[in-house]
Automatic annotation (TrEMBL):
PANTHER family: DIMETHYLARGININASE (PTHR12737:SF9), DIMETHYLARGININE DIMETHYLAMINOHYDROLASE (PTHR12737). InterPro entries: DDAH-like. It holds the Pfam family ADI. Keywords: Hydrolase. Belongs to the DDAH family. SUPFAM superfamilies: Pentein (SSF55909). This is Dimethylarginine dimethylaminohydrolase family protein.
Length: 256
């Protein structure tokens, strides 16, 4: 399957107030905006047409569009982000996705929580990490909704202390996953090629594969070297600012 489109939202100035598990300082909003442009160019070079939406100051984390929706060729599901400051992003995403999808499902207010960062779509299944942001009720609702398009959702336990399932893994090819040591033995990846992120570079795991290119965070030379030696075509993405608010290449776009 090839992606043809991507949706992104420019970072707001309020990104300085974005949620983070550990405070390692505020991101620099201007630098983040600059890095975001580089990210958009990388997506375009990977062959997708990118729709860029303007910043939403009232939602500091809204640059991380991935958490509010899950997109398939057949349709989209509007998710229900688990952080209270982010719940409102779902409605905004809904309004926007009606111009891309005819078939839209939505996790309703009484159906629990799911963050897109907890969902990894593989060839075999839609893997959903239960986490601080994604609960069993949300998973159950999502599972039902995507079954009609023929997708099977499987629940996974996100490792303790890890924000999202995809904080620790990312798809790097049709049947290949990049994963930290915390996940590399996970049963959910059986039948897939697993590339383990070298120790100390765990942040690099949040990579994405867009058509023939892997978008990888810059600054992780061992991971880069390993992937290149395995024959992957890589574009490096500056994510230092995003990382200060727990973001990476995956969170900043919806691809379909
Ligand atoms: C948050 O805590 O919600 C944001 N600061 C980071 C979201 C990262 N999203 C993702 O990994 N999909």
């Amino acid at each position: 399957h090839r992606f043809t489109k991507a949706i992104v939202r420019q970072p707001s100035k309020s990104i300085t107030m974005g949620l983070r598990a550990d405070d390692r300082g505020e991101p620099d909003a201007d630098q983040f905006a600059q890095d975001h442009k580089t990210y958009i160019s990388a997506l375009e070079r990977a062959g997708v047409s990118v729709s860029t939406y303007p910043p939403l100051e009232e939602f500091p984390d809204s640059v991380f569009v991935e958490d509010a929706a899950l997109c398939f060729p057949e349709g989209a599901v509007i998710l229900r982000p688990g952080a209270p400051s982010r719940t409102g992003e779902a409605e905004i995403m809904h309004q926007l996705l009606v111009s891309y999808f005819e078939d839209i499902e939505r996790i309703e207010d009484d159906e629990g929580y799911v963050d897109g960062g907890d969902i990894l779509v593989t060839e075999h299944a839609v893997l959903v990490g239960l986490s601080e942001r994604t609960n069993q009720a949300g998973f159950d609702a999502l599972k039902k909704k995507i079954a009609k398009w023929g997708y099977e959702a499987k629940a996974i336990n996100t490792p303790e202390g890890v924000l999202h399932f995809k904080t620790d893994c990312g798809l790097i090819g049709p049947n290949a996953v990049l994963a930290t040591y915390r996940l590399s033995d996970a049963e959910c990846f059986s039948g897939m090629k697993i590339v383990e992120v070298p120790r100390g570079e765990e942040t690099a795991a949040n990579a994405i594969c867009v058509n023939d290119t892997v978008l990888l965070s810059a600054g992780f030379p061992k991971t880069e070297e390993l992937l290149r030696s395995e024959g992957y075509q890589i574009t490096l993405i500056p994510t230092q600012q995003a990382a200060l608010v727990d973001g990476g290449p995956s969170c900043m776009s919806l691809r379909f």
